[in-house]
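Tutorial, part two.
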Amino acid sequence: MDMAQWWPRLKPSTREWLIGNNGDVVPAEVIAEIADVGGQPDSDASWVGRSGPSGFYLSDEAVDWIEAVGNGEDAGQA
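Running the prediction step on this input gives:
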């Protein structure tokens, strides 16, 4: 499921956090909420970025998408 489908299902506070902390490590509770509303992500989902010792990051495409949404632009699909 792409971001445009699960984004509106997130709690407003989660969407605000993602906009305000765009590009930062995504906390486990946010990842869990995304999985609850959008299903478990697979590795080819466009919004899945990298995971490492410091945590999970959204993809560059997802960061750009969230920035567009935060700026009130039509973000299309991610």
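Residues 19 and 67 are 7 Å apart (CA to CA). In part three we will examine how such features are distributed along the chain.
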